[in-house]
């Protein structure tokens, strides 16, 4: 049951395959491209970990609600689910602490104002929430020493096996497919080798941690955390399904009211069915709504409320039913519904404009209309739904908001209606400013200038995660006789010639940086204003 209901996602299959391929490439060469690929996979694994954790949280929330509704029926399964949640969180934390130890054992720098994170750095967030920069992501010695020589891998293997045994103990032995799935996800057996290699047989520990660069080991540990989370998800769903594995048994009668919606728009119809929870085909109940007896058909009566004006409206009734003993029993009920005007609000999550070349976050609030009943369209671009919100990607610039319109439609009563249309401006991402050592000009000490690596392009007061990279710049310095020396660079870094020139500049002289170009994340190259510094 469990394995069929909880299949491995295509994303997880892709990540697993990428890890296998990258691990195989390590045997050939620890190239920069391979290390970068591991960084990408590790980042994707951490994102997947958060997504699976959110899914698990929804399942545990369903357990809480089910327990409130029927503690006797749900109690046994909720107790197992609570223990599963605790053991899984402890396993995830254990692996996270092991990651922290690996990074600190290899060498790290604390990220702060003096050592900020750049796009080229690889950093790690510890269990305590501290951000540290990894100094040697290609370190082959430290992981082998800590995990294999000091036998931390043996401890990890024991923890995985203990968790696996616990998880399998929650499964009915008849559910062999789910047991096989868990065993495969949390497998710690030694690799199979040919008879010719018996003298140098590898273990699970050496296979995964010996002679592996630090980034590969961290990625593997992230994969183990994903495997734990997937196992937790499979078992949580399995336990929840076991609550209602048997048939429902009714032990009392009750008045039931099912409305098409408790919130309707002005002009629409509020409709609700009223019936007795346990139907008896031999007789019809009497149903009174607002002190008037109404027609009953197939054990149900239908009430239609007014929606001519906005507000909250209450209504009530009574169901009378004759028991087999001839006694008339009454089951009263009360209900209310809300009539709302058809309004909708739209807002760009960052600013009141869209930017071409960016994924602009966009929020839509339907007020009384559920978000799942909304449909958003736009001109001059495309809109994509991401979770409960949207992403806007304009096609052309539109500074005067003449051709960029966002429309919101709502499905109400089975019909699609236009609720609102708004116009938006589309602007280009602003140009960055060139900076050296956090300055765009002015006085600078010679020794401060001498330790800089190059020129940065910085977007000032811009809320989006958009980056520019300097592609070229020229340094001009004064020489004897009033001449000017020019030293070009075809990147964002100082050349050796430029560094030598900066060492020769005199105090109170001017260093001019011009011909600055920067390429944005959208691929467009911008010409930036020149900057100049007076040497102090």
UniProtKB/TrEMBL annotation:
Domain named Gliding motility-associated protein GldM C-terminal: residues: 430-536
Domain Gliding motility-associated protein GldM N-terminal span(s) in chain numbering: 33-241
Location of the Gliding motility-associated protein GldM second immunoglobulin-like domain: 344-427
Domain Gliding motility-associated protein GldM first immunoglobulin-like: from-to ranges: 245-341
Pfam families: GldM_1st, GldM_2nd, GldM_3rd, GldM_4th
Entry-linked InterPro entries: GldM_Ig-like-1, GldM_Ig-like-2, Motility-assoc_prot_GldM, Motility-assoc_prot_GldM_C, Motility-assoc_prot_GldM_N
Protein name as it appears in the record: Gliding motility protein GldM
Source species: Draconibacterium aestuarii
């Amino acid at each position: 049951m469990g394995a069929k209901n909880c299949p491995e996602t295509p994303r997880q299959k892709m990540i697993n395959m990428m890890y296998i391929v990258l691990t195989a490439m390590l045997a050939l060469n620890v190239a920069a491209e391979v290390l970068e690929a591991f960084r990408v996979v590790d980042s994707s694994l951490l994102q997947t970990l958060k997504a699976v954790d959110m899914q698990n949280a929804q399942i545990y929330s369903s357990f809480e609600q089910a327990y409130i509704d029927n503690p006797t029926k749900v109690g046994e399964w909720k107790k197992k689910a609570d223990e599963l949640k605790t053991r899984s969180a402890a396993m995830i934390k254990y692996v996270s602490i092991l990651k922290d130890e690996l990074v600190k054992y290899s060498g790290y720098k604390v990220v702060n104002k003096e050592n900020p994170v750049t796009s080229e750095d690889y950093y790690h967030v510890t269990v305590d929430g501290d951000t540290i920069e990894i100094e040697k992501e290609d370190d082959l010695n430290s992981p082998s020493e800590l995990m294999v020589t000091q036998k931390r891998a043996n401890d990890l293997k024991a923890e995985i096996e203990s968790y696996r045994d616990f998880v399998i103990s929650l499964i009915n032995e008849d559910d062999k497919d789910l047991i096989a799935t868990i065993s495969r996800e949390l497998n710690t057996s030694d690799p199979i080798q040919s008879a010719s290699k018996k003298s140098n047989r590898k273990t699970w520990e050496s296979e995964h941690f010996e002679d592996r660069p630090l980034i590969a080991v961290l990625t593997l540990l992230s994969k183990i955390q994903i495997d734990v989370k997937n196992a937790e998800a499979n078992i949580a769903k399995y336990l929840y399904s076991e609550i209602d594995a048997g048939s429902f048994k009714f032990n009392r009668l009750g008045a039931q009211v099912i409305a098409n919606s408790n919130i309707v728009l002005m002009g629409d119809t509020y409709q609700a069915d009223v019936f007795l929870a346990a139907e008896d085909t031999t007789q019809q109940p009497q149903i009174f709504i607002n002190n008037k007896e109404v027609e009953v058909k197939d054990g149900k009566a239908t009430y239609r409320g007014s929606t001519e004006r906005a507000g909250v409206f209450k209504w009530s009734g009574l169901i009378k039913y004759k028991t087999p003993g001839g006694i008339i029993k009454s089951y009263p009920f009360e209900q209310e519904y809300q009539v709302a005007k058809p309004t909708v609000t739209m807002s760009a999550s960052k600013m009141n404009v869209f930017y071409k070349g960016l994924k602009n976050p966009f929020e839509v609030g339907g007020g009384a209309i559920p978000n799942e009943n909304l449909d958003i369209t736009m001109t001059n671009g495309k809109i994509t739904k991401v979770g409960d919100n949207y992403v806007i990607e304009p096609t052309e610039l539109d500074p005067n908001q003449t051709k960029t319109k966002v429309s919101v439609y709502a499905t109400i009563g089975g019909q699609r209606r236009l609720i609102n249309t708004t116009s938006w401006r589309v602007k280009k991402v602003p140009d960055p400013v060139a900076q050296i050592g956090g300055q765009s000009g002015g006085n600078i000490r010679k020794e401060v200038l001498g330790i800089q690596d190059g020129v940065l392009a910085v977007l000032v007061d811009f809320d989006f995660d958009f980056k520019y990279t300097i592609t070229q710049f020229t340094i001009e310095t004064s020489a004897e006789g009033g001449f000017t020396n020019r030293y070009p660079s075809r990147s964002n870094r100082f050349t050796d010639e430029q560094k030598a020139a900066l060492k020769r500049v005199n105090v109170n002289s001017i260093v001019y940086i011009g011909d600055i170009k920067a390429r944005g994340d959208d691929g467009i190259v911008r010409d930036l204003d020149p900057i100049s510094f007076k040497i102090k």
